[in-house]
Amino acid sequence: MNIKTVALSFAFIIAIANFEGADLKLTELNTSKPIVTFIDDDCTTLFLTNLEPICADKNIKITLSWITSKTGQPGYGGVTYMTLDQLNQVAEKGYEIVSHTDQHNHLNIETDAELEADMKISHDILKANGFNADVIVYPFGLEGTYAEKLRTKNAASKYYKYGVDCLIGGDNPKPIDNYCVYRQSTETLGIDGLKDVVDQCQANNSWLIFLTHSGGECFDAKKVSELIDYIKLKGIDIMTFGEAEKIKCNALDFNNCNAPVYRIIYNQEDMDIPIKNYAINKETIVECAFAVPDCENQAGVMKVYRGGNHFSYALFYSLIYGNGNVYKRNWDDYALVPAWDTWEKIGV
């Protein structure tokens, strides 16, 4: 059993043991078939001439990410963004509209207030217009340092169920990090490389998401058309994000975003990040697939609770090739420089 399997099993046990009665939904871990999704960024009018005819000819529906502040406006390089009427017409044909933020900035350099507004405004406009307000596609990908990425993911989690990246390619492993869903660019690989990624998706029975920019100079209609033909030849279904998510969602899912467990993080690089980076009044399950020096050099799973009024703590469970010990530490908010105190063994 590998570390991710143990971490997910542990999270399942925590949910059942401690949170009985929470608005918890357990869905089957579905790896029965591969699925491919296309997300076309920006919602320019060139989608209507460059990509929609291909989709119509091949009888597929894809997802489009919308920059809400640019609706109907002229853009870089002479492109124009779709009007709301055009977006509604596209949606009526079965295409899915999701968020690409309101401003399309580099999220890692926005202030906290700017980041919050960028997420919220887009979400509210999507919801008001009946589009899919559960998904955000990060402009330029999930950028920055580890702390900056975590800040972006935390902001996204307030309004969305999923955040889609573009810096990590390939198919999505199971379980999926809800706020760093992998997406493979069609612009960085040739057709043979893209076909290889499709083959990998089929071999893994996984979820593969492709990035296109139908309004960009790098859009290659011939390559995208050949790629779709290859996917269909392999017998792989092409679905919108919302359709695929219902099949490929994680085994552990919450109907209520206010449920006690916030999310599961895999292979977190830094156990000592400040408590402010965790969701308040919730528990976060963190995989630690490395030796933890203060816990007898064991790997395992950390559970972090961030409470209000300075009541925050972390528990570490030694699970992998370890001694089964349990350790605890508290967040010292009253110190001159607030920080985690030392780990203390509290049980086996």
Annotation keywords:
alpha/beta; 6-stranded parallel sheet; 24% strand; 348 residues; TIM Barrel; 8 helices; 7-stranded mixed sheet; 2 domains; 17 strands
Helices and strands, in order, run as: HEEHEHEHEHEEHEHEHEEEEEEEE
Question: Which structural class is indicated by helix and strand composition?
Answer: alpha/beta
CATH architecture of the largest domain: Alpha-Beta Barrel
CATH class designation of the largest domain? Alpha Beta
CATH fold descriptor of the largest domain? TIM Barrel
Q: Roughly how much helix do the residues carry, as a percent range? A: 25-40%
Mean pLDDT: 83
Describe the secondary-structure layout.
Elements: H1 3-18, E1 24-26, E2 35-42, H2 46-58, E3 63-66, H3 84-92, E4 96-99, H4 112-128, E5 135-137, H5 146-157, E6 162-164, E7 184-185, H6 191-204, E8 207-212, H7 221-233, E9 237-238, H8 241-248, E10 252-254, E11 261-265, E12 282-292, E13 298-306, E14 312-320, E15 326-332, E16 339-340, E17 344-347
Parallel strand pairs: 2-3, 2-8, 2-9, 3-4, 5-6, 7-8, 11-12
Antiparallel strand pairs: 1-10, 12-13, 13-14, 14-15, 15-16, 15-17
